[in-house]
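Narrative progress, year one. The postdoctoral researcher (J.K.) led the effort to move from monomer predictions toward full complexes, under supervision of the PI. The following entry was the first complex the group processed end to end, covering 318 residues in total.
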Amino acid sequence: MTDLADLRLTPQRMAVLEVLRAAADHPTAAEVYERVRRSSPRIGSATVYRTLALLVSTGRALELNLGDGAAARYDANTCRHDHAVCDGCGRAVDIDHPVPDGMVAEIARRSGFAITGYDLQFRGMCPDCQASSSDPARAAGGTGPTVNTHAKGVLHAEA
Amino acid sequence: MTDLADLRLTPQRMAVLEVLRAAADHPTAAEVYERVRRSSPRIGSATVYRTLALLVSTGRALELNLGDGAAARYDANTCRHDHAVCDGCGRAVDIDHPVPDGMVAEIARRSGFAITGYDLQFRGMCPDCQASSSDPARAAGGTGPTVNTHAKGVLHAEA
DNA sequence: AGTGATACTGAGAGTCGTTCTCAACCAGTG
DNA sequence: CACTGGTTGAGAACGACTCTCAGTATCACT
């Protein structure tokens, strides 16, 4: 793992970090690449991928696997948080509601794992998509293309 | 979504389901393909992928994204459950400890999402890898190759 | 300023997991 | 028996990502 001190802040890396910081959504690497090219048209995709990996490994960004196809997503919000992904528009919103420590400890005890972290993501319909699916006029809502994330685990109660 | 009644149980599909049911681990599609070929050598990879997608969409299997590279994993245990993934050997074990319903309801309320399900996965070291990493003689533990899943969110307490 | 060592970059090729295409096949139905 | 429509297998195609490599920038010394 590259150490923090060892990291040169080149213009390209700055540009990638800027884009990530400015992003309100959770862009894929390809989206980051596209946005960075607006300010640094000569940057290569390999540099963007390398830089994203570097930012992740030095703790300046988070990598997310939201299960929509293959593309990893990136998040400059490095505080521990989770996500809710909309089955309609594919949008992901941040959730700041940690799993109770007691539960983690209990799972560690039962499984024997030394647990260092976890990923939690919820699936469902965002408020916009709920409104437009009950609406006969299907207002597309906006952000992304429709992603067909089939529910991978079904909730066993209320919701 | 293909309906259950609509599903022909061809020999190929039976073979894939058999392999999945017999698997104690969480095989990737490529692993399923390899195992199915032992009994049905003429099967094509497209058929395996198609069948896995079919099984998932009809609720006969679960698709997992354990974040180790790109490959999706499959699980014939369709009951709601979560996973703990070992950073050492890449192995995933089942965790049967649901998130409290109250927490899900609270998140639904706060985010406005109509939550239909969730995915929770823990990361850490399995008992075997803990033993072999403290051991000077690094007993490899066994199942898989070493996967370098860099921690994507760090736990904020005890563990 | 000159010199070498080292890190970084961009282009393009390569890899990997997955999906698509398409002709051939098979199982029912009329 | 011919028709119809779902299913199959081979291979091409695709998207996301990584690797390779020559060229460039930056640093530490002199």
